[in-house]
Structures are given as C-alpha cells and as structure tokens.
Amino acid sequence: xxxxxxxxxxxxxxxxxxxxxxxxxxxxxxxxxxxxxxxxxxxxxxxxxxxxxxxxxxxxxxxxxxxxxxxxxxxxxxxxxxxxxxxxxxxxxxxxxxxxxxxxxxxxxxxxxxxxxxxxxxxxxxxxxxxxxxxxxxxxxxxxxxxxxxxxxxxxxxxxxxxxxxxxxxxxxxxxxxxxxxxxxxxxxxxxxxxxxxxxxxxxxxxxxxxxxxxxxxxxxxxxxxxxxxxxxxxxxxxxxxxxxxxxxxxxxxxxxxxxxxxxxxxxxxxxxxxxxxxxxxxxxxxxxxxxxxxxxxxxxxxxxxxxxxxxxxxxxxxxxxxxxxxxxxxxxxxxxxxxxxxxxxxxxxxxxxxxxxxxxxxxxxxxxxxxxxxxxxxxxxxxxxxxxxxxxxxxxxxxxxxxxxxxxxxxxxxxxxxxxxxxxxxxxxxxxxxxxxxxxxxxxxxxxxxxxxxxxxxxxxxxxxxxxxxxxxxxxxxxxxxxxxxxxxxxxxxxxxxxxxxxxxxxxxxxxxxxxxxxxxxxxxxxxxxxxxxxxxxxxxxxxxxxxxxxxxxxxxxxxxxxxxxxxxxxxxxxxxxxxxxxxxxxxxxxxxxxxxxxxxxxxxxxxxxxxxxxxxxxxxxxxxxxxxxxxxxxxxxxxxxxxxxxxxxxxxxxxxxxxxxxxxxxxxxxxxxxxxxxxxxxxxxxxxxxxxxxxxxxxxxxxxxxxxxxxxxxxxxxxxxxxxxxxxxxxxxxxxxxxxxxxxxxxxxxxxxxxxxxxxxxxxxxxxxxxxxxxxxxxxxxxxxxxxxxxxxxxxxxxxxxxxxxxxxxxxxxxxxxxxxxxxxxxxxxxxxxxxxxxxxxxxxxxxxxxxxxxxxxxxxxxxxxxxxxxxxxxxxxxxxxxxxxxxxxxxxxxxxxxxxxxxxxxxxxxxxxxxxxxxxxxxxxxxxxxxxxxxxxxxxxxxxxxx
Length: 950
Known about the structure:
6-stranded mixed β-sheet, globular, 950 residues, alpha/beta
C-alpha cells in the first residue's frame, strides 16, 4: 500500500523545491549503491563510504531487514536503488547524470551544499544523495533520514522508528547552509561527565561527534592551557606529574588522567572527528605558564592584575614569544592542526593598573599572539570572543572598542570573533560588525551550568534571523554554541543547532512537531505533541526558573538564590511559579500516560525525568517562598507546613535520580580513578568544582543528598531559631557559618550514601511514586499595577518606593550631600570598580504590568563632560543599552526622559536588578530616578513623589 509522505524541510534556508509528496517504497526492495570501506587517509572518499554505511545501517534498523550495499559498478539487483555520491564520487551517479535521469546541480557553491534527487530509468527508480564534497554527501544522507524517515539524532541519544517503507519517488531536496561554521562547544571542566568532558574517554567523545555531524555541525574546540593535560606541558614546561591539587580562584587546574593517556585519548578523538568533517580550534592563554614554572623562573616579567590566580608572562617579552612558540609547536606536532587558535587576551581581567594601561596590554598581546602564530603556522586564523567586552566594561568603552579593531585592521583577514552571547548581551550590533572582521553569532544559554528547563525559543529564533538577515552581516560566517555545561536542555539545543544550518526555515510549531515525530513512537505522537507544547509554554517562551536548592547562597548572581532580606526579586518570580507549576504537572501526567507505549525508549525516559524533577524543583521554590513569607510574619504552623513540603520535593528528586547512573557524580569519579595513572586528588577536585562559588551546581544525586538538601535544612533551621527569639530579620550573611561548614564537609570527605537512600525500582516506578509527593494549591498571581495609566513610580536616596536601589560588588551605594539634598554618586574614581554602576530594582507589583515601551526619567547634576549610561533588562539582552545622557557642564540640575522600547524587568542583571546607571568620565551625581508610561507628560517632582504621582 502506498502512503503519502509530506516532506517538511525545517532547516533549509534555500530549499524552495524540497517540499512535496513522495511515494513510499518497501525497504526490503531497496539496495544502496555506494562505496564501502576506505579509511581516513582519503577524507572525501571515506566520508562517502561512511554515508553509504550509515544509510544501509539505518534502513536496516528501521525495517528489521538486511539492506544490501553494492558497488557502483555492480549489476543492479533491485527496482529501487539509493545512490550515494555525486558524479565525481560515484560512477553510477555520473551515468545517471549523463543520461539526464537526475539533475545534481547544487543550490549554491557552498562547500557543504547537497541535493537529494529522484529519477526513473529502464524500469528502475533512483534516489541520489550528492554533496559538493564527501561531507555534503554525508549530510545529505542524514538529512534524508531525519526529514523523510523520522530518524532522530539528539544530544542524549537517537530514536530509530520502526517502518517497512521509505520515501523515494517524489523526494526532491536542495540544501545549503546559512552559516559556514557551525560550532558546538563541550565544557572542559572537572564535574560529572554527563555535563562536562574532562573525564570522558575518546569513545564517549566520539559519540558526541556522531551527534554533531548528524546535526550538520562542523566545529568544536579543546583547551590547551598551560596547566598539565597531555604530554605537551611536560615537554615544554618541565612539569612533573606528582600527586597534587592546584586551584585558580577555587577552580581545579591540576592534571587528571596521566599525560600519556590524555595525549592518546585526544589523538584518537581528533582523528575520529576530523574524518567526519569536524574542525578543532585550540584554545589557549597567550603567555600562560604553570605555577611551578613561575616558581622556577621568578625573574621573568609577569602581567599584573589578572584573575583566577593566572601566571602570564608579558606578551611582548622575548621569553613569552619563545615559550609560546615552543608550546604551540609541540601541540601541533602531537595533534595536527586545523589552523584555528582561540585566545582572548586576559579575559575577565584588566592586566593593567588603569583602563588605558589594560587596553594597551591587551592590544599588545593580540599583536604578539598573531606574530607567534604566523611563525608557527602561516595559515593561522586567530579566533577571539566578545566576552571580555562585557566583563571588563572599564576597559572596553565604545571608543576603545573602535580603536581596537582599527589598530588590528592589518590582521583582519586572519581574525575571527565569536560574539559569545549574542542571545543575551550582543556586541555585533554595537561594534559595526566587529570592524569588518569575520564573526559568529554566539549562544551561551547554560551560563553558570544552568541545567533546569529554561529558555526563550521564539526569541532565539528571532534573534538569529535578525542577525543573519541584517544587511550589514556580510561577514557573519558562523553560529557558535558556547554552553558552560551540556547534556541537558536537549530540546533547546536541538532548536539552536537547527538554526545553525538555516534560521529562515525554522518555525517553532513545526520544530515542535518534528521534535516529537523524531523522538517518540508514532503511536505516541499526538499525546507527546500536546505534552511538549505544554513544556514549551511553561519553560521555553521566556520561562524556566533557577531552582533555589541548587543555587542557594550563590555569590555571583543573587537572583538565583532563595529569599533573604537583601533579596526581593523572588516577588517577581512568584507569579511565574504559579503559572509554570500547573503546566509542568500537566506535562508529567501527559507523558506518564504514554509510558506503556514508550517502554524501551530511553529518550522518553530522559524527558520524563527532566520534566518531573523540574516540576518538583519549582514546587520546592514555591514552598520556600511561602515558608519565608510565613517566617516574616511569625506564622509558625504555615512555615513548618511549607518547609516540610519543600524538603519532600527534594527527596522526590533524589529518589528519581538514584535510579539513573548518569546522574551520579560518584560514577564519574569511579570511572576516572579506574584508569591507571589518574591523579589521586581527582575525587577532591571533582567535589570542589561542583560547589566552587556555587557556579556550576548541575544536578547530581550525591550532591543533592549530601550538600544541597542540607543547605535547605540549615536555611529553615535558621528561620526557626530566629522565630524562637522573635527576630524576623534574615540577612544573607546569617547563613555563612552553616553554609561554610557544609561546603567544607562535602569537599573534604568521601561520598557515602547508604543503599537505603536509593530507590529499589525502575526510573519509571520512581517517577510514579514521587510525582504526587508535594500536592499543593498554587495561589493565583497577585494583582498588579498598570503602567498604561499616568502613574509615576520614583525614588530618591531618602524616599524608597516600588523602585529601589541595590548594592553590588561593582555598584556600591554611595550618597553625598549636594545643594542641601542627599544624592547618589556613581563613578567615583576613589572607589574604582566598586562604584562603577548604580543598580535599581522594579518591584514585582509594578514590573508585572510594565507595558512596553516604558519611560525612565533621571534627575542629575549636569557637571563635567561625561556620559550617564543606562543599561536595562530588555527583551533582547540583560544589559540592553539605551541612548546615553551627555553632560554639558552647565552646573544645573537637569531631568532627562529616556524611552526603553522593549523592557522585560525579569531581574536578570547583577544583584537581581532591572536596570543600572553607569558613569563614563564621571563621577556623576543622581538625585532621583522614575519609571512611567511613555505618554506621561508630567515629570516627577523627586522631592515629593513616593510610589505614585503627586
């Protein structure tokens, strides 16, 4: 029986003829004509042979029938023939082109373009897979399997549907990528190998490479920092691997596997990946040397003012150039090269006593690096990134950014910049496209190891398309994924890797349909489509929340911490919790209804685990907020009720995770220690990495049981103790002693969890047992203030209101008296970076109904020639830049009104703030700040207003 198959091409940017009806053909009657065997010494032929073998393998797996692979010169043994290779790669394809059976003209001259064309001749039906090169042909096969046969390739595995037929007649595909360079980064860190790759074997890394090539990704990287890894460090720096620990700002940087094992592992991995068209950049820090090297050579000139306890030789010194040339030569000798070298000079550090000095040393390092790279590799490309531009704002003013790219213009044809977080803090649109340098659009997403379900799919689609279609983006060459951890948030990365091929063809609803079609059984499609749409509505339309129990007490980003007296942003998150929890409950119930159909589908189980732990994590957040509220008003019974439910939620998550070895950090430790020669301090370094500054607390069973839950218990115990003595205050510092003791115990002791704490059944049984562990009636969102009226919400240092200032490490609140009134001072040179910004928070009651746009009014002293810069939490960036206020040195108090076109006010800035003011060439005095609807004509009277217009 013939079935009609609608070929939906979601990823092709240039595929107008790829949608049509294709008649299904019995797989048992198909043969594949292509080359088999071969090796990586001839990469083009080898990739075609891989394509042939993969087509045979997947057709066989789908049908349960053996599919024959015949040579292109063999007699045709079936009525339907799938021909793998273009006219230069496959003689049968050449003959079909010569007889005009198929037209294999490519849609562009792009190196990765491909076509899949059908034709009939002499009683046979043909389907030809032809790329511009061997890699394009391999892409053609994978594209067909995904889009025509519903074979799903995901970061966490693959799904091969059972089917007896495959479409042949009517298939007509033409694809070319929008982005030449399609990168996915795998974090080189010391945590659990579900999320990081420090402890993965070559075989485990190769599995990720298989996923990359199936997603048509073609670039990744490895960090060759001077801290010992392979044998290159010992050869150049004389490093001896003896049992030791080494940390930079708390981050492990000592050797793990023996250098010989690491070198062999990297060589095997690089060879496997390169054979499949994946390029590597080598990340390094120019002039970086191990601690032991500096101890042996204290006489060398070292760069001052660097973070992470880094030891870096001055970039223009002869000693630096000599040691880096030797180091790079050894790396290339051992591992080969794709001529790509990543280095951003002294990222997140100044490197100089003043911003001007820091800028000059960074510029000098860039020039010295390129000089050394040229001597090593005349084909070099120096790759850097934009992260430092946002991390060290005192150095990277707009003028210095322009000067940087202007000064390096002679090197422009050898430079490449990836905009680290184009999805959050883009610089491509603020630097005139990086001064004409080839660049890539960057997606950070899992910053700080965020592993909970979160993201904004409509936004990332829109942002990618805007960048790709901008008339000035002529040098936009790539899309880079820069996650700080991976192996989670699978759906979001499935979307963004689709965008990396062709953003203009991606539609969210069609993506969700395809995601379900390629991930689940056909019989479950309808139910899982409803389930997935619900998850998208809950977490992937700008939703998704930090879970407090993982982030509690974090010092980098208080917005990701449980409520304390110095943190009120939870009020903004509370209505979102009330919205998300019922949706995630629905998603879990819908998924459980399909469990019997999806038995044996590991991908379904992965989703069920993620959805359930997300639901329970959100419920724990909700109950922690309710417990805090009860504590503040002395309602002991309400406090105890919510504290108990919050802890039950954590127990429920732990129960589920205990059934899954991939969520075990101890398994990562055990696997690493089983390899001969591994550093005996690895277990301590892994545990330390997991909690350093609470920066990367990605979910694992042991850490939840022994560290995260005890922190929540300590949090509740502190509240109990305060309620006993009638104290309703709860400063963040009150937890320092308890949290410090728990951190010390976790780091210094082996992981010991009794078997009684582990669930004895299957993962599915654990989910069923734990899904209702915390029933609750989620309260409706509180009423909100409507800024569509003429209301003005304002504050001054003496009159706080629904708009309030927040202190932070780079935004210390400083007040002075000027003209008889108290005002804020920002940009005080005496305080340096500590007083660079003035942060403000918009209360939840106001922020919830801020209709875009919003007007922000600032009263300031017009003294000097500086700039007052406003950055707000906007739809496109956490630090969206508004038009700056230029001072004219009139000596008068002035009021400026600035329109913010797309504010979000989701507490995404430092300290959980919604916007900040900064002084360039300050200091600047600010008397008051207000927000209102943009049509409000009256300016606030700052001496009188307090929360509403007077």
